[in-house]
TrEMBL record:
<protein>
    <submittedName>
        <fullName>Lipopolysaccharide biosynthesis protein</fullName>
    </submittedName>
</protein>
């Protein structure tokens, strides 16, 4: 494992279901002195919406927030700066920290396609090391390719499979065509007498209703099927323990694998996914992973009747948070992850 003892890290990240806290905790456990800041001034639904759709209207708030960070870190010398996503991070901040810490290695990671956030492309020039979870972006923008990870608590060390309450579970945020695809899967599962459970999550009732008015996919959403209560990691793990397989529905324009992919497989549960690019990863095994067409849903009963095949320990480690940290702060892993990619 990489040695970070005595290293000082300035870490900014978008808030994403407390994974940023897990990363901060692990960096500290590895001996680093970490100063963490949320990259957004606020995580209210209003703030997220303004930043997402037109952050110019939030310019003064963003400027004030980042100037406060600069005041708090003034005089500190860092070995590394890590930014994850950086949707709200202004260029003037990147300029100033680079000038004040000229020897600091600047590291960037993004877990969304750049076509969805094209304004982030201009920030890439500030960084010494640039990573993306999206293979196509790695090629197009000359970035390092590093998929996401799972947290240790998801790992099932003995691959223990308990009697299942469900055959199929879906847990995910309500966005794009997830509801449309999810309900198609539910209908097919019902026709096969499979036991299913679907948990669609939305950040806030008002924000969801407004988005529902303009998003053609969400217009079909039965709001009674939406929960506004976020599940924590332990609650999600408890659901995994009760099911044979977990459904993952990627954004239709996204090839990078969701973090759910890694958590499900690490937990020893089978995965049903709409992301066909998963066939280009070292852990792909048709016994464990069923790829479905979001336009023509088919479920194979045999998939539910066979056992999960244990993932090789070396591959499982490469999927872990520790390996993710090693990649960002140590040596890039493109040679490993690209070995399995079929480029024909």
């Amino acid at each position: 494992m990489i040695d970070l003892h005595g290293k000082k890290i300035l870490f900014l990240s978008v808030s994403f279901f407390n994974y940023e806290k897990a990363i901060t905790k692990r960096l500290s456990e590895l001996g680093a002195d970490v100063d963490f800041y949320d990259e957004r001034p606020s995580n209210s639904n209003f703030s997220k919406g303004i930043i997402r759709f037109n952050k110019r209207f939030y310019h003064l708030k963003i400027k004030e927030y980042y100037n406060r960070i600069l005041d708090e870190i003034r005089g500190k010398k860092y070995d590394f700066f890590l930014l994850i996503k950086g949707e709200a991070t202004p260029a003037f901040f990147l300029d100033k920290i680079k000038v004040s810490n000229p020897k600091m290695e600047m590291i960037y990671y993004n877990f969304d396609p750049l076509k969805e956030y094209p304004e982030l492309i201009s920030h890439l020039t500030y960084f010494d090391k640039k990573f993306t979870f999206e293979y196509n972006d790695s090629v197009k923008y000359n970035l390092n390719f590093r998929p996401l990870f799972y947290l240790d608590e998801y790992e099932n060390p003995d691959n223990q499979i308990q009697p299942s309450q469900y055959d199929l579970v879906f847990i995910g945020s309500a966005h794009t065509d997830r509801y449309v695809v999810g309900e198609k899967v539910r209908t097919v599962a019902d026709g096969l007498n499979l036991r299913s459970y679907f948990y669609y999550y939305a950040m806030g009732r008002i924000a969801f209703r407004l988005k529902k008015m303009i998003d053609k996919n969400l217009k079909q959403f039965d709001i009674s099927k939406v929960s506004f209560n976020k599940l924590n990691h332990q609650q999600i793990i408890d659901f995994y323990k009760k099911t044979k397989a977990v459904l993952d529905i990627n954004k239709p324009f996204q090839n990078g694998l969701t973090i759910r992919t890694f958590e499900v497989l690490a937990s020893g549960r089978k995965l049903i996914t709409t992301n066909s690019d998963i066939r280009n990863y070292p852990f792909y095994n048709s016994d464990n992973i069923l790829v479905i067409d979001r336009e023509n849903i088919r479920l194979d009963m045999e998939f539910f009747e066979t056992d999960f095949k244990e993932i090789d320990a070396d591959i499982l480690y490469k999927m872990s948070l520790d390996s993710f940290i090693e990649c960002l702060f140590g040596n890039a892993q493109d040679d490993y992850w690209n070995t399995f990619r079929n480029t024909e």
